[in-house]
Each structure stands twice: as structure tokens, then as C-alpha cells.
Write a structure and sequence with these properties.
Aldehyde Dehydrogenase, Chain A, domain 1; Aldehyde Dehydrogenase, Chain A, domain 2; 2 domains; seven-stranded mixed β-sheet; five-stranded parallel β-sheet; 35% helix; globular; binds NADP nicotinamide-adenine-dinucleotide phosphate
């Protein structure tokens, strides 16, 4: 029997009472560890976090809590090698892809430590300036933000077991709100191990950080009016979260990051071989292959002028042909596996759903795997699809294939390309490629209403740009409509979710005494 990973709740390590759900190596097919949450006293777990963790965190100032984040960074850095090993074994990722998850998390925590330090030794935040309520300034209104007196429940997706925890925990802990994380079962090991290292190091107050691995049953039922829930995952589960009585009847604040049909848009006039064309090709190939395309921000639809459709298909296909796929332990492998055989089946089903409305422009499915058995490994080569009638191919704008798959779509003119981008019905990100600043700016404003982030790539930012799918803590992560309507990161904006707004109406003397 493999090791049963304990949960950390109510300030102590507790194993579930069931046999556990096994976690697998998606390349070798071997069982790694098991997780189980059966029999945990969830009311006690939430009460302990809310009371012990919340009180201890709120007794500190923002600067002191920023210090805690800095201490967490040190713990994670000290154990980095172990995290890479777990990511290879449980997520099937090559080193560069593991870095996106692991080092991306450490970087994000470090940023929030810096931003939090600058907030200083206060326990509430001023929100705008005081405004007089009458003719004379003797009675004024001052808005302020105070940490919510509740717990933050994170229900996370399988593709970012590290970053998915810390990009949410950084602003939560900085705000003074204790965290309970429930990682997706398939890849829960890395999340559990990171929490274990931080708890064992004793750098956080008791109750500030808890982890529950295994079934989600009963978690939402624990939420009280001042708690918050931050969910990342499929649109289907998002609907369950949104309609839960805690959210619907108890006003628990919910942030939802769901699926998204992101796009890349080559602006009109960019000829094959131009800088803009080459930059699009490079980014598309990168997005299709990083983490085997299992990124919520990955490019799924590639919008190009009709006259460059064939050249784009050829250029992207030629680069994809050079992508080696297989066991991430082999140094010659560029793309590892999907996280599970179930995910592999889901990708195959997704390709099946798109088949009637698309043609295959590049097919990596039959390429032999390196150091991996195709009957066992959850590996699949990249597949580039195409649809010459971008309007008629409705499913391309509807079905998210969560793997190394994207579809090339031709457009007639800029207005048509913008209309196609909007057909994602709300996306996390689009990237624009061109060299005319005015045209790019016009396109950015036109796509803005349906996108959370617009990543503009011009020749002068070739080396400096941070990547279409790379989520930087400085920019908001989230998107309207189908993407879930959530908003994470974006610097200190992320703290809003963990605070409550209050307007204090008082004399200037009282307002000054608030000490903000
Ligand atoms: P999922 O099946 O919806 O699972 C997400 C999380 O919800 C897991 O922790 C899962 O636990 C839990 N869960 C399942 N049923 C639940 C229920 N009834 N109540 C409460 N929690 C429940 O999604 P996934 O397959 O892991 O993730 C893939 C999807 O996530 C993709 O569509 C992708 O686009 C999206 N995603 C979005 C973002 C973003 O930032 N927008 C980021 C990453 C991924 P178990 O694992 O134990 O079932």
C-alpha cells in the first residue's frame, strides 16, 4: 500500500478513515500516494481556522503579515528540488513546465510580500479620500476596507497544484484571512507537500493554513456569511458552487475561474515571414505545448487574415513537428504528459467533438513517444486543427479541449476578427500581434469587453514580453462571462476580495484617529 497523505485541519495532521484514492504517475502508470478526507470533523476544521487562524492573523499588521509571506518563500525555496520531483512524478511535466507552477508560485508570493510591506503597520486600509457630507467639512465620509472575519476556502484545479494555491493564498494571508485549500485530487500531492513544509517550519500561526485532500463533500456546507470561496475548475462544477445555498442564501463571496476559449489575433496586413507573423507562430507553439496545453490561459483559437491562413498552418505545423513528447525524465523530451489517462480520454473526446467542423492541419498523435509506453502514458502529441469557415464552425468557439490542441481560423477584416474573438463568450486572455501601435490600440479596446487581459506583442517587446499564457501577479487574472467572471491578482487589487468595505461618517478628528 502506498502512503496515505494526512490532511492538516484544526491545527493538527489528521488522516482520513477511508482506504484513500490513489494518485498516479501519468507516464509510468504507477501508484504514488493516496489521499482521503473521510471522517474529518469539518465544522471543527472551519471553526478553528476562522477563530484561531483569523484572530492570530488579524492581530498582525499588513507589514507583519508580509513578513510571513517572505518566510513562506524561504521555506518553499529550501524545498524546491522535492517539488520538482513530485511535479515530474504526479503531473508528468518537464522541468520548464514544472517551473511555471513552482517558481511561478514563489515569485508571486515574493511580489505580495513586497507590496504588503509597503502597506505599513496598519490593520485597515483607507479606500479613497474623505468627502465632506455637508457645506462645511466638519462631518465627513471616509471609506475603508477591513479584513473579512472569515475563512477563505480554495477549491483548485488539477493543472496548477502549486501556483493555484499560492496565487490565492498570498493576497488572502496578507489580508489577514486564514486559508483552507482543497486541491484537485489527481495532483494533490504537491499542494499537500508544500503545506506540510510550511506547517512543519512553524512560520505561520496555528489555523492560518489548512489542507484537505480527497473528496469535496461537505466543504461548501461549512461556509458562513463572512467566509469567501475561490474556485478554479470546470464550468460545470462552477455552477454547483454558484448555486450552493452558502453563496445563494448566505452571501458568501465567490470568485470563479472557469474554462476559457482564449485567442491569438494576427492583425490585418502582417505578411508571412514578417516579425508579427513570426511572433504569433512562436507564441502559438509555446502555448500549445507548455504543460501539454493544460493551461486555462492557453491559446485555443488562432485568428489570422484569410490570405495568410495557409502560410500560418504551414509555419505552425513545421514547428510543432519538432516537438518531442514522452517521459519528462528524458532530457530530449520537450513536452511531457497530460495529468491522467482520464484527461487523455477527455482530450480525445474533445477532438472528436470538433472533428466534424474542422480539418487536421498538423497531427502529432501518431508520432512515437520517447521513453514512454503509449498504452500506459497519458501522452499526446500536439494537434493543430483548422476551419476555413470560422463563422460556421460553432463548436470551435464552444468546446475547450484541455490539451495541446488549437484551431486556426481565417477572418475577412478587423471587424470580423473582433467578432470572432468575442464568440468565446468571455475569455481570460487574447494576444494581439502587429506593428502598428494605433491599430493595435484600437483592436485592444474593441476586444476588451470580453477579455480579462490583452497581451499585445510588437517587435520591440520580442524579448521583454512575458508570454500570452503566463499569469503575472501585476495583472488581473480572470475573465467575464464564460471564463467565470472572477478577478484574481492585479497587484493589491486582489486584496479587495478578502476585505469588507465600510463608510465611516464622522468628524475629521475621529477620522484622523483611525490612523490610516
Ligand atoms: P473540476 O472537475 O471542475 O474540478 C475542480 C475542483 O473542484 C477540484 O478540486 C474538484 O475536486 C472540485 N470539485 C469537483 N466537484 C465538486 C463539487 N461538487 N463541489 C465542490 N468541489 C468540487 O475541474 P478540473 O477538471 O480539475 O479542471 C480543469 C478545468 O479548470 C478546465 O476547464 C480549465 O479551463 C479550468 N481552469 C481554469 C483556470 C482559471 O484560472 N480560469 C485555471 C485552471 C483550470 P476533485 O478533483 O476531488 O474532483
Amino acid at each position: 500500500m502506498t502512503e496515505l497523505l494526512p490532511n492538516h485541519v484544526a491545527g493538527r495532521w489528521q488522516s482520513g478513515s477511508g482506504a484513500g484514492t490513489p494518485l498516479f504517475d501519468p507516464v509510468l502508470g504507477t501508484e504514488l500516494v493516496r489521499v482521503d478526507a473521510t471522517g474529518l470533523d469539518l465544522p471543527e476544521a472551519f471553526r478553528f481556522a476562522r477563530e484561531q487562524g483569523g484572530n492570530a492573523l488579524r492581530a498582525l499588521t499588513y507589514r507583519q503579515r508580509a513578513g510571513l509571506l517572505g518566510a513562506v518563500v524561504k521555506v518553499l525555496q529550501a524545498n524546491r528540488d522535492a517539488y520538482y520531483e513530485i511535479a515530474t512524478a504526479n503531473s508528468g511535466t518537464v522541468k520548464n513546465d514544472s517551473a511555471v507552477d513552482i517558481d511561478g508560485a514563489i515569485f508571486t508570493l515574493g511580489q505580495y510580500a513586497k507590496w504588503g510591506d509597503a502597506l505599513g503597520d496598519v490593520r485597515a486600509l483607507r479606500d479613497g479620500d474623505a468627502v465632506k457630507l455637508g457645506k462645511e467639512p466638519v462631518f465627513q465620509s471616509q471609506h475603508l476596507q477591513v479584513p473579512t472575519h472569515g475563512v477563505a476556502l480554495f477549491i483548485n484545479a488539477f493543472n496548477f497544484p502549486s501556483w493555484g494555491l499560492w496565487e490565492k493564498a498570498a493576497p488572502a494571508l496578507l489580508s489577514g484571512v486564514p486559508v483552507i485549500v482543497k486541491p484537485a485530487t489527481a495532483t494533490a500531492w504537491l499542494t499537500q507537500r508544500m503545506v506540510k513544509d510550511v506547517i512543519d517550519a512553524g512560520v505561520l500561526p496555528a489555523g492560518a493554513l489548512s489542507v484537505i485532500c480527497g473528496s469535496s463533500a461537505g466543504l461548501m456546507d461549512q461556509l458562513q456569511p463572512f467566509d469567501v470561496v475561490s474556485f478554479t475548475g470546470s464550468a460545470e462544477t462552477a455552477t454547483v458552487i454558484r448555486s450552493h445555498p452558502a453563496v445563494a442564501a448566505r452571501s458568501v463571496r465567490a470568485n470563479i475561474e472557469a474554462d476559457s476559449l482564449n485567442s491569438a489575433l494576427l492583425l490585418p496586413g502582417a505578411a508571412p515571414g514578417s516579425d508579427a507573423f513570426n511572433l504569433l507562430v512562436r507564441e502559438v507553439v509555446r502555448e500549445m505545448t507548455v504543460k501539454s496545453g493544460q493551461k486555462c490561459t492557453a491559446i485555443r483559437r488562432i485568428l489570422v487574415p484569410t490570405e495568410v491562413y495557409d502560410a500560418a498552418a504551414e509555419a505552425i505545423g513545421a514547428k510543432l513537428a519538432g516537438v518531442t513528447v514522452g517521459n519528462p525524465r528524458n532530457e530530449s523530451v520537450r513536452m511531457g504528459s497530460l495529468v491522467s489517462r482520464a484527461q487523455l480520454n477527455a482530450v480525445r473526446e474533445g477532438l472528436g467533438a470538433l472533428a466534424a467542423q474542422t480539418t487536421v492541419l498538423h497531427d502529432g498523435r501518431n508520432k512515437s513517444l520517447i521513453d514512454a509506453d503509449p498504452a500506459v502514458a497519458a501522452c499526446i502529441g500536439p494537434v493543430l486543427l483548422g476551419a476555413r469557415d470560422a463563422d460556421a464552425a460553432q463548436r470551435v468557439h464552444d468546446v475547450e479541449v484541455f490539451g495541446p490542441v488549437a484551431t486556426l481560423l481565417p477572418y475577412r477584416d478587423l471587424a470580423h476578427s473582433i467578432a470572432l474573438a468575442h464568440r468565446g463568450q468571455g475569455s481570460l486572455v487574447t494576444s494581439l500581434y502587429g506593428s502598428d501601435d494605433a491599430a493595435l490600440a484600437q483592436a485592444a479596446l474593441a476586444v476588451a469587453p470580453s477579455h480579462g487581459r490583452i497581451h499585445v506583442v510588437t517587435p520591440e517587446v520580442t524579448q521583454a514580453h512575458t508570454g500570452h499564457g503566463n499569469v503575472m501577479p501585476m495583472s488581473m487574472h480572470g475573465g467575464p462571462g464564460r471564463a467565470g467572471g472572477g478577478a484574481e491578482l492585479g497587484g493589491l487589487r486582489a486584496l479587495d476580495f478578502y476585505h469588507r468595505k465600510t463608510a465611516v461618517q464622522a468628524s475629521p478628528g475621529v477620522l484622523a484617529a483611525l490612523g490610516l
